[in-house]
Write a structure and sequence with these properties.
alpha/beta, Uracil-DNA Glycosylase, subunit E, three-stranded antiparallel sheet, globular
């Protein structure tokens, strides 16, 4: 099994929300980019919600994303996994990222949005017990191509909640 390590977080301007994946997939690791699989719809959803131009490459996309009040990270610092599927992660190898530090450095974060079910499970199991404060957590449908049961428009509709949370300024 391969050891898969998380990337550093992408921290937007005074982030109000934190969006969490579980762990980078094979293509993301190879390219050293969040959500690099061509059929992952995370970046197209961000483009629709916030007007980001994703046609100019990953670095340009990230520069635009960093102007938003959003932080992006993975729940797992590292794990053992063959391939890209979350279901292939060795549950005994899970190590969470340091969320205490990210919340201390960015106290404006009031809501965590988990990109998919395993990110939500890992956050609740590995991270929540380590926090000395409460934070609102919402599970969103995975943007991964492995979650093909829901189409782009349905996912986009569900992901609208992050924009509402940012605009509300509280834990709506």
């Amino acid at each position: 099994m391969a050891v898969v390590k998380s990337f550093p977080p992408i921290i937007g301007h005074e982030p109000k929300i934190l969006v969490l994946g579980s762990s980078p997939g094979v293509i993301s690791v190879k390219k050293q980019q969040y959500f690099a699989h061509s059929r992952n719809v995370f970046w197209p959803i961000m483009a629709q919600l916030f007007g980001i131009d994703i046609s100019q490459g990953y670095e340009n996309t990230v520069k635009q994303f960093e102007k938003l009040p959003i932080a992006l990270w993975d729940c797992l610092k590292q794990c053992n996994r063959e391939g890209s599927l979350d279901s292939a992660i060795d549950k005994k190898s899970l190590e969470a990222n340091d969320f205490v530090s990210i919340f201390e450095k960015h106290p404006t974060i009031h809501h965590v949005f988990c990109n998919g079910g395993l990110s939500f499970q890992y956050f609740n199991k590995l991270v929540l017990p380590t926090l000395s404060f409460s934070v609102k957590i919402t599970q969103l449908p995975s943007t991964s191509p492995a979650h093909a049961a829901m189409g782009f428009q349905q996912k986009l509709e569900k992901w609208q909640v992050i924009k509402a949370s940012i605009n509300s300024g509280n834990s709506s």
